[in-house]
Amino acid sequence: MSYRRPSPSGRRSAVDANTKRLRSERQSTRRRVDAVVTPDGLAFRTRTGAVLLVFGLVWAVHIGRAAYVGLGGDERLVKRLHSQHERVVTVAPQRGSILDRLGRPLAVSVELGSAYADPSMVEDPAEAARLLAPVLGAETEDLEKKLNKSGRFVWLGRQIDEATSEGIRALGIDGVRVTPEAHREYPSGTLAAQVLGFVGTDGDGLEGLEARYDSQLMGDSFRYTVLRDRRRRATNYEGVLARRSTEGQSLVLTLDHGIQHRAEMSLDAAVERHEAKAGFAMVMDANTGALLAVASNPRFDPNSFRDADRSTWKNLALSMNFEPGSTMKSFVVAEALERDLTTPDERIYCEKGRYKIGRNVVHDSHPEGWLTMADVVKKSSNVGTVKLAERLGPADLEEVYRRFGFGSRTGVDLYGEEGGILHSSAGWARITFATHAFGQGVAVTGLQMASAYCALINGGTKVRPHVLAQVRDIDDLVVEDLRPTTEGERVISEETSAAMRPLLERVLEKDGTGWRAAMGEYTAGGKTGTAQKVKDGRYAKGLYVSSFIGFAPVDEPKVVTYVVLDEPMNKYYGGTVAGPVFREVTAYALRSLGVPPDKVEEPEALAAIREAEEQEAEDRKKRERKERKERGGDAAPPADSLPTLVADAGGWILPDLSGLSGRDAVALLAAAGLAPVVNGTGLVASQEPAATTWIASGDTVRVSLDAAAKRRRR
Q: What is the C-alpha separation between 476 and 482, in angstroms, rounded?
């Protein structure tokens, strides 16, 4: 096909045609414009402009909103954005320690592992549960339910040991991790459990000092932001969990580890010996109100508090309201002396043990005729005390009881304190007034009674009972000193207080009601109490609260010790069942405090005690021989042999503790002022330091128990 070039005349014809077409289009445009300016055209143009304006405004709003959101102006949307890509994790703080007055640990925090999972990251929950169950010692079904939850975080096991933690890590399951977590331990087990209280799994104090001072012990929580990827998976858990929170402050108590241990051991033995329902023993500084020991029986182990009956959590020295009996007589005598209504040498006729008041009769356990006022105290005569109270009258008797603190709380820094019961004297009948004089019809707590006796014998000033001495920070610097610095209210004169001490000392003489409480190294004074219990509105036959409260030394009292046994069965007189506990605990406390002995010769009372105890031991052996004979064998069962600590150059040579029970090991170490730390259950398998090591009082001895260890034999 050939191409023929157009001629010049042809090209001119084409240009002319295009020119004509363009001119025609311009003329058409002018005609349309002219048409718009007509009334109909103008309306069309207005509607078009309005539509364009609306569209322009809509686009402007969208563009503005996008710019506003993009620049972060809407806080609600910002928070929503952060919630999708970030998560704030709170790392629990490590609690501060609780220490005794010499810095020995009573409660400490240790680091254990806790297993958790992010269910969204676990690909096969059933298989993961099957692998984890034997390691955690949990049910497969329970773990599978947790791993199938829709949440982002779930605990699989709290406060697990290192071996379990390593086992979980070795499985390498995506979404399952182990984090370090603080765990509360009480190295001395049941020691002072009702005072210390305990901590829950989440680290919150639930009872005792752990609850009352939870904020000081807790410290500050550490908060950390966890970043998430587009699938909402945490990308930096490991970095978070490696961080630690601020450690809480430590509490330094007035309690003494050794004195507390001796009080608990002596109390436990008395409760068992006399088959009592319960009991408590407390030692208080006579001049400051500092509690050196507060023991309750039955006890519990705060390391496993969930296994104990809730009733054992109660601190009986604070929470038990009871009729005190004859220990109240001392306040009647003191007020009579204060008002010059009697003298120690005055003779009072005690009616041969029967004093008629209206249609009622007040009895004495041992009929007496004429007694000096001092002998009224010594022999605990109800009749003689009522006659002294009658010189005061009901209103003054009530006033003196309230002045010494009965009928109201002491304000001690512990939870669970009761206030006792003391009704208005306006409602007392004549016999009610008489029974109040010898401690019936009024209810007290152990803390009230100990505080009142401190004021009675320390020169006449009230004390503020307290168990917390100092609060210290993590650098062991004192943040707050809570020991009282001012003298308490005066309740009796120094002269009356000085006169009461020798009167109460006579109670411990050979023919006094408290002769079993006498000590060989120290002078002491005190008062027995034996009160019938009320049951179903009537005094129950055979049910008693038996007690002894005393102080030592006589001339310069350092401590007041109060011992109470609830419902002893075989014997019930306060001097008999509680007096020996007072003797053991008080003598140990004075030696621990460095108080020098003030008695040179053994008194007749102590000789009588030794004779009575030897007779009791012989009677016990006879019963045991009889029981073995009835069982058909004469050989005694093998018994554990306790090693001894040998004193050396101001310290001790540590013996081999292997094969001992945890209780025996703690008893042996605490008696020497050492601080035992016990781990595990069973018998002693190892110790640190090793046997034959020299160790000073106050040092820590770590003891590991093992159920498979062999018991030591003679």
A: 16
